[in-house]
């Protein structure tokens, strides 16, 4: 059998095999076997060295024609196989567009976050700045700069978690008051700020207490600040949070960093002051602590207490939220129970 007959025989067998191919792997193997470096056509064409000058162009033309024909039919077969695979996938993975879709639940901000944002909006509207701080603090800023020197008995009220003798988890956001006063340029005007954040105290977890909770402390320092400014500010904030018909009651108290100090009560928003289970039949609900900034705190920040004065206050988001929404267990805020959280989604 001469070369021309061998090429024709190879062409017939190849085209027959090509028609029978059913998958892409077999198709690629066929191309390698026929046209690869060690393929059958390559082996046949090695005999061209023995041909005459007149025979070589004829055999070369036959080989090129075979390659071209195989290339065209190879691509057509490849498309045919891909379409068959696609059709099979479509038949086995049919999607019924008439079926109802899965409802994706939408989350919402945590009720404590909502409460904090609402309080922040009130103070931003009054010209206050919002200051974020460190949850891990030094004893110096957490206690000493708040007029609580070492071994001061008032520290027992804020027993906390110590990392070292001088580093602890903050017991209030008051350290940011001292840090902000240190950084503030009082020659350009007074300071009005609130410091929201998480605080920690060694406490027994029960329905009304937690070893961690959230606090928003406020500070105003300027010339000629008086108790009247404090009362006017808190009266406005509490009425915005609990209703315009609320009244405030002021009782003397003690905080090391303020003097004089007060506890602030709000008239019960449920019974209007008549007495109920919310206010324990007193008509009043304790809401926050406040007072005029102690001169020692001002002096430690490099301010002349005879020129500057200020007021400070602190309130807890949990207590505000519990009172507003009738929540009777503080642990609900932290347990991640979706049934609890969904009540406040709107």
From TrEMBL:
CDD domains: PheRS_alpha_core (cd00496)
EC class: ligase
Single GO BP term: phenylalanyl-tRNA aminoacylation
Transmembrane segments: none
Reaction equation(s) it catalyzes: tRNA(Phe) + L-phenylalanine + ATP = L-phenylalanyl-tRNA(Phe) + AMP + diphosphate + H(+)
One CC-aspect GO term: cytoplasm
Ranges for domain Aminoacyl-transfer RNA synthetases class-II family profile: 119-343
EC number: 6.1.1.20
Domain of life: Bacteria
Protein residues bound to Mg(2+): 259
Entries under NCBIfam families matching the protein: pheS (TIGR00468)
HAMAP family: Phe_tRNA_synth_alpha1 (MF_00281)
Family under the similarity heading: Belongs to the class-II aminoacyl-tRNA synthetase family. Phe-tRNA synthetase alpha subunit type 1 subfamily.
Name this protein carries in UniProt: Phenylalanine--tRNA ligase alpha subunit
Native organism: Lactococcus taiwanensis
Gene designation: pheS
């Amino acid at each position: 059998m001469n070369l021309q007959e061998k090429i024709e025989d190879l062409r017939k067998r190849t085209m027959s095999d090509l028609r029978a191919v059913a998958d892409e792997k077999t198709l690629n193997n066929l191309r390698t076997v026929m046209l690869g470096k060690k393929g059958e056509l390559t082996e046949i064409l090695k005999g061209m060295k023995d041909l005459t000058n007149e025979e070589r162009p004829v055999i070369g033309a036959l080989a090129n024609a075979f390659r071209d024909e195989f290339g065209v039919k190879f691509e057509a077969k490849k498309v045919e196989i891909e379409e068959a695979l696609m059709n099979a996938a479509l038949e086995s993975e049919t999607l019924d567009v008439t079926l109802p879709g899965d409802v994706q639940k939408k989350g919402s901000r945590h009720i404590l976050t909502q409460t904090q944002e609402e309080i922040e909006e009130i103070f931003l509207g009054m010209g206050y700045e919002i200051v974020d701080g460190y949850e891990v603090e030094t004893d110096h800023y957490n206690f000493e700069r708040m007029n609580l020197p070492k071994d001061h008995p008032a520290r027992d009220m804020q027993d906390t978690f110590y990392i070292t003798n001088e580093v602890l988890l903050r017991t209030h956001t008051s350290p940011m008051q001292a840090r902000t006063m240190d950084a503030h340029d009082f020659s350009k005007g007074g300071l009005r700020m609130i410091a929201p954040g998480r605080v920690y105290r060694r406490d027994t977890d029960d329905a009304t207490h937690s070893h961690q909770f959230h606090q928003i402390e406020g500070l105003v320092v300027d010339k000629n600040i008086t108790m009247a400014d404090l009362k006017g500010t808190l009266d406005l904030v509490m009425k915005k949070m609990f209703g315009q018909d609320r009244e405030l009651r002021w009782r003397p108290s003690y905080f090391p960093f303020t003097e004089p100090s007060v506890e602030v009560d709000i008239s019960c928003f449920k019974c209007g002051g008549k007495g109920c289970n919310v206010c324990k039949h007193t008509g009043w609900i304790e809401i926050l602590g406040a007072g005029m900034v102690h001169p020692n705190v001002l002096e430690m920040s490099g301010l002349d207490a005879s020129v500057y004065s200020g007021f400070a206050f602190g309130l807890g988001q949990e207590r505000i939220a519990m009172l507003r929404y009738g929540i009777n267990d503080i642990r609900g805020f932290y347990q991640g129970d979706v049934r609890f959280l969904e009540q406040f989604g709107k």
